[in-house]
Specification:
The protein is an alpha/beta fold and 287 residues long. It contains twelve helices and five strands. A five-stranded parallel sheet has the order 2-1-3-4-5, sandwiched between helices. Helix 4 packs across helix 5 and helix 6 packs parallel to helix 11. The longest helix is centred in the N-terminal third of the chain and has 18 residues. The protein starts with 8 loop residues before the first strand and ends with a helix.
Length: 287
């Protein structure tokens, strides 16, 4: 990423990159479990359900729920999956996997079907990281800003409104009939925006997403978020050495803005969208 050829569009992964799904989902599950256990109808719950609901770690359950989503999207990322009729949305997955996980943890019956649907919708209302809204607003003055998420369109629209994320456009894997890391998604997004792939930069907190985008010719911006990276330490260091990340914002970055990772991205771009090379971290700076 150079000051000679900066991107025209910043495309954003959303879950984990711009919003803190872990806190919102964990707190919602815990709150809803407490309400269910203290409701007037709680006496009808089996003793085993009451026991498991009282002792389970809801943050761990939230992580399991998130992990099922990762596996689901990987299994639906084949470039040959083009039929919109065969496409299952993230909303459908979130509901189905919640029902399945509750059964696996002996918690079936804790919530009514209506309550389950409402809880599954929490992914529409995740709270943002503290730096996301303001920095995205400022970046939008110099770049086309767009989601590029595996969340479905309705989910992303609700999420953008709830978290006050002022995107120029909403793009979802749903538009392309496949999930990231399918090339259909990255190539389709650039085509939809009327841009060449090299004119687009993906902003994400997951190196696997960024690697797939890079393989399609995108520029890449990595924002490390706590507990979001799936790659192990050796893989992360290899990615850093190899240099295919154009802008690396690490949690241990000595020049990390006190306002957060996306604010640091904003700080590394000058007014008008030109990249400021004086603030770029090199591999030597990071080691």
């Amino acid at each position: 990423m150079s000051c000679i050829n900066p991107p025209k569009a910043l495309l954003f992964d959303v879950f984990g990159t711009l919003v803190d799904w872990r806190t919102t989902v964990s707190e919602t599950l815990s709150k809803q479990a407490t309400l269910a256990l203290n409701s007037s109808s709680s006496s009808s719950l089996p003793t085993s359900v009451r026991l498991f609901a009282s002792t389970i770690s809801w943050p761990d359950f939230a992580q399991e729920w998130r992990d099922t989503y990762k596996e689901f999207t990987k299994s639906h990322s084949s470039p040959t999956l083009k039929s919109k009729n065969a496409f299952k949305t993230a909303d459908q997955h979130h509901y189905d996997s919640l029902v399945r996980l509750l059964a696996d943890h002996n918690l079936a019956g804790l919530w009514s079907p209506g309550e389950l649907h409402a809880i599954a919708q929490i992914w529409h209302f995740l709270d943002p990281w503290s730096d996301s809204s303001t920095a995205l607003h400022d970046l939008g003055k110099s770049f086309l800003t767009c989601t590029l998420s595996n969340g479905n369109v309705a989910l992303l629209r609700d999420l953008a409104a709830h978290a006050e994320l002022p995107f120029s456009r909403i793009l979802s894997s749903e538009h392309f009939g496949a999930y990231k890391p399918s090339p259909l998604v990255y190539n389709g997004a650039a085509e939809h925006l009327g841009l060449r792939n090299e004119q687009c930069a993906l902003v994400a907190a997951h190196l696997s997403d960024l690697k797939a985008a890079r393989d399609c010719g995108f520029q890449t911006i990595y924002i490390e978020r706590e507990d979001e990276e799936d790659w192990d330490a050796e893989q992360v260091m290899a990615a850093r050495r190899e240099g295919w990340i154009d802008m690396w914002i690490g949690l241990d970055d000595p020049r990390m803005s006190a306002l957060g990772g996306l604010a640091e991205v904003r700080g590394r771009f000058a007014v008008g969208g030109a990249y400021d090379p004086r603030r770029r971290l090199s591999i030597l700076d990071a080691t």
